[in-house]
Amino acid sequence: MAALYEGFTLCGLVPTQNASDSPIQGIELDGDSDHAVVTDSTRSVTLYKVSDQKPLGSWTVKQGQLLTCPAVCNFQTKEYVVVSDNKVIRVWKDEDLNIDKAFKATVSADVWRVHSAPGGEPVVLFQRGAVRLLDSLLSAPQQPIEDVLSEEEVIRWSTNIVAEKQHFVLFTTEQKGEHFLYVQRLNPNTLQKYRLEREDSGAPPLSFSASLRDKHINLLYLYPNGCVYQSVVAVRGPVELEGVQTLPRSLRLRLPVGEGKLGAASAVALDEAHVAVVGMPHPSARTGKDFLCIWNTNFQTLQAGKEMVGRIHGPVWCYLGKLFVPHGKALSVIPYECQKSSLASALGKLRHAGIAVSKSSVAVPSWNSLLHGDQPQGPAKIVDTRKSKLSRKSQSATALNVDQVLELIKTGPVEEVQREVEALVSRGDAQDLQLSVGQLACHLVARSQAETAFYTPGALAQLVQTQCLCHSVCPDLLLLALEHKDYFLCQLCLQLFPDIPEVVTCACLKTFISVPDGDVEMVSLEPDSVSFMEGLVAAGDRGGQQNGFSPPLFEEDSCDAHHQPKPPQHQDKKNPTLQLEACPVGLHKAVLLNEVLQTAYSDNFLLPHLKDLNAQQVILFLQYLQFVYLKFSQDVYTQTPGLRSPTMTQVGTWKH
């Protein structure tokens, strides 16, 4: 899981004359995790204390001069380095009040960027592709600088990485619609050139970011069509390869960009599984609004989103758990958190629950057919599978693609929409599902909210069962299921969504505890969870004490315990839990309550919403918790392995 926390404004921004230009050239840390060096688009460099948004120092070049690359910190000397007018390198310290009086040197060729990283000396990248260490360049500023790039080839992006005491400078170039990646190793100096694969549209990448992971350099780049690709360059690879190599890439994410294309969007990798993207529409929000979103690339799921007011200005910077986003008239700092174990925990939870949904075949059988055993035998399945393959081949010419189904959802009749969505999901492979399920679900939910007569329970259930969907991608789905009293879909969401907010969990609890037993007894629910409750309710009491243990009553939690007089000691020959042998709620209501008990939550976020329950609902819920807990404690029921059920710990935690 991932979260975006409440942000703050680090500083205001002055709009540029050219609306397409960013008012900020760059943001760097100066060695202190709470200090940020911000270079504007014209003449100033400002040092901020991030925690209290306080400027600690500001330096400005003279009128008529222009800063042409972002300032960086020399971590070895604790000095700042910036370039003005393409060729003048300036070096100064905190105590220098006037940057014009500090050290400066004019070099013989135009500079593209100065890069610096902890553990390495600053390097200077020239506009024609040559690279020099800062100290060696300043010792002879007028030394000749060679041309590395071909004619009409220009640099579009660059960065540097220090890995295993080896310094790398990476930069991308564009030449006649082709894009290339250069990897410059220092000491010893080697240069490798790679060709990036082209998109069918021929559009150039909007942004690049690079990170070091598992002794490999990972290059992440975003295209206007929403595709986020990753390419990997080995740190310990061949020192130099002959010729220009094509750089393999893999599609990590396909963002839902809507009807148009992304403009000033940017993507940056946060860790091995999460990517932050700024300048894209939210899948559930109306068009015309830009968001900062965190996506999980392993599961193609939206983890967190925050609307950014105003126009997005170019890239997003990421440092030490904070995202720096220039937008509108402000530079915002937004803390974030990525929990590496949460998705793995969610999958572990699903495996423990005994839920096995194949991503390669996601046809949804009815629970009734499973319960009554009318499943085809093995040979029949094979024949049906062959027939279905032949049928799919014959129907491929008329089958609708994702875009056509999305258009159909807007105006088509319920039966046709449901049929086409189910057909699309059934014939799609795992990769296709990951990229389209979120869009389909959001469109179905949006129309259901706009038209009360439109609701497709089967299609929504099938989309959820692909396990390519989560609450963050379609936050209104579970609430829509509650509104339509679609308890089967509610159960699926509670089982398969790892990121349900506590307010929604409480809404489910309030609905389940309040619904009459008769309204849910005829609803088809997941068989394992029903089997568990049937066994628990049918289990006989085997006496008050087991192995010398006699569990106490929940006197502090049960309202009945406060009003019922305690029997005299001589009458207490049997454990008083016998009076709670009957389940206080119906079988299917108990199944739904068990799903709530197994949903992940945080106490701090859950407790305020529990106050929405009235006294009668609280009493009934406590009675049910007491019933299940005592059944577990007395060992009156031996659970069948593989059945979905809450644990004794989960029941006890809710009690407290």
UniProtKB/TrEMBL annotation:
One of its GO terms (molecular function) is RNA binding. Its main location: nucleus. It comes from Hucho hucho. PANTHER family: NUCLEOLAR PROTEIN 11. The keyword Transcription applies. One of its GO terms (biological process) is maturation of SSU-rRNA. Keywords: Activator, Nucleus, rRNA processing, Transcription, Transcription regulation. It comes from the Eukaryota. Signal peptide: none annotated. Pfam families: Nol11_C, NOL11_N. This is Nucleolar protein 11. The keyword Oxidoreductase does not apply. Residues 428-654 form the Nucleolar protein 11 C-terminal domain. Residues 1-336 form the Nucleolar protein 11 N-terminal domain. SUPFAM superfamilies: WD40 repeat-like. GO terms for cellular component: nucleolus. It is found in: Nucleus, Nucleolus.
